[in-house]
Amino acid sequence: CFGSAAVQRNPSFSMLNSDDINYFKGILGDKNVIQDEDRLLTANTDWMNKYRGSSKLLLLPRSTEEVSQILNYCNSRSLAVVPQGGNTGLVGGSVPVYDEVIINVGLMNSVISFDKVSGILVCEAGCILENLITFLDTQGFVMPLDLGAKGSCQIGGNVSTNAGGLRLVRYGSLHGNILGIEAVLANGDVLDMLGTLRKDNTGYDLKHLFIGSEGSLGIVTKVSILTPPKLSSVNLAFLACKDYFSCQKLLVEAKRKLGEILSAFEFLDNVAMDLALNHLEGVRNPLPPSLHNFYVLIETTGSNESSDKEKLEAFLLHAMEVGLISDGALSQDINQASSFWRLREGLPEALQKAGAVYKYDLSIPVEKMYDLVEEMRTRLGAPTKVVAYGHLGDGNLHLNISAPQYDEKILAQIEPFVYEWTSKHRGSISAEHGLGLMKANEIFYSKSKNTVQLMSSIKKLLDPNGILNPYKVLPHSLST
Ligand code: FAD
Ligand code: 2HG
Ligand code: ZN
What we know:
A hairpin with a 4-residue loop joins β15 and β16. 36% of the residues lie in helices and 20% in strands. It contains 18 helices and 16 strands.
């Protein structure tokens, strides 16, 4: 576990005592003040089993008012807190580093309203993403966000990480789709920014501060989201390419020829494919066995079944003729489409099952992206496996290094090399997962000194005692 190795506990934080517990029981009732060891172990441990805190308390508020009372009290007592959603975050941001109180809004999981004309959904932050997807489906709409962790992650967690996912290439980021937010500040003040308007230029649009701030500026309690209508024709192709250059060219062609119906463009390399086949139950390669180096998933979503399919088929035929793809399968029904997606979405799980994993989530210009993977392979050699996949359509590489166990020597071979390489190519060291604990000290690889200084001033203004998700996001030298 990497838990607290790199940072000291901030001595200005109080230690939890029995008066605190009684106070919380007074607000929330005994049932929602959790001290049970098993439940605390789960809440203290992150999805990768890599970060573990030692919190003695998990609080489950049922309303904004309760969140407000909790934070107001914690602030006055200097008790540090960690906002937690589905705990699927991949940068150690959602679990305590030391004894921070964990606050999870999972019981706040109601849909508040849905406007069928505008497609605007207003809901509480604890709604599980998959439940929102299902709800919208019954209304004839879709969520502009989809990701492999949908069964556990909460919309509040998605907003707080500014999660990207599989459909960003079509619908854009949450900075565009989130129309409003209600958030509770460290001192308990409730900020009602829960607008439901497409256009509202009345001063600074402060909701954006909370999108992607990883629980460091406030607890998100409600959100309003613009959701697009569900279209009738969805097609999914699973393709093989002989080299990375072909994947890249295929992307350029897909944007040009499928532009208005393109809804996902994902890639994985053959090391990722092997990993999926070895570690995911029931998953098989949709293509006949052959030596393919790369795989691409192209999804189209449109409103005209026959013409969309015709367009995709013509595109694929041409790509095959000019050698951009070497083989391919078009899903014939919804079950086959889910099996294609399962292979791609299951990769984080396959890596988790394979052993220790060093995870890097990078934005890199598409032309250069795979150079890093190859350089990393040369650097590391056996017994590590360098696994590459990601949202190629968004220029987002998921570079994962799988090893039998965590080893400082391997880590020293990877870092800071991977960050320096990314920075040199003007990329981002966090495309979509955030900085959390893992990369708080690495922020300067992607942000200038003055920018980080301003972030720190904003943090101090909103959370002067630094109780909200300490040790995360901002460099430790500035945040304690
Ligand atoms: P948590 O993990 O609980 O928390 C994440 C961060 O948000 C923490 O810093 C936490 O303090 C903060 N937070 C949580 N809830 C709140 C709240 N209500 N108010 C304020 N702060 C809060 N990410 C992507 O971007 N794209 C992907 O495709 C993707 N796929 C994934 C697939 C798998 C299998 C897994 C395990 C993770 C994946 N992730 C992906 C990473 C993860 O960021 C997302 O799963 C998700 O956005 C996290 O939501 P959560 O509710 O689990 O939040
Ligand atoms: C995905 O796209 C997630 O599957 C996780 O963002 C990425 O495992 C990873 O590195
Ligand atoms: Zn991703």
